[in-house]
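A quick aside before the break. I want you to see a complete sequence-to-structure record at least once, exactly as it would be stored in a machine-readable document. Don't worry about memorizing anything.
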Amino acid sequence: MASLNVGNLGEYLREQRRTAQLSLRQLADAAGVSNPYLSQIERGLRKPSAEVLQQVAKALRISAETLYVRAGILDEKEREELETRAVILADPSINERQKQVLLQIYDSFRKENAAEAAEAAEAAEAAQAAEAAASTTKAADAGTPGPTPDAESPSR
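That is the input. The structure line, written in tokens, reads:
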């Protein structure tokens, strides 16, 4: 069986399993998957579904989003956003209304920063375009001969 391109998911899972001091069989039982299937995932022969990754993450007591990123299901930026939301929602020291307000503030900050980044990118593009136009004009001016001193002097 050829190895699938699932990044270093299998190596990462094996490392996490060993850190948790679990055998392959123990983790498979805790995650509710078969021992051979988990072994194939660790060796990079199978690409697990998001559901299986979530079960494995729960059994290892690690972030499912981290496994999603390593499996290529989620990109890093999305993972960070999801983890931030999960932490806010899981915090037992604040009530539901406070959680919703925090999430709204978080969303507004993200939108504001995205708008600022877009404006900065547009300004940089405009500056590059202006610079390119100026250098083109300069090059054109350098190639055009100006008036000669003899042509301007009165004839004798």
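Two observations worth writing down. Helices lie at 9-19, 24-31, 35-42, 50-60, 64-71, 76-90, 96-143, 149-152. The two ends are 97 Å apart (CA to CA). We'll return to this after the break.
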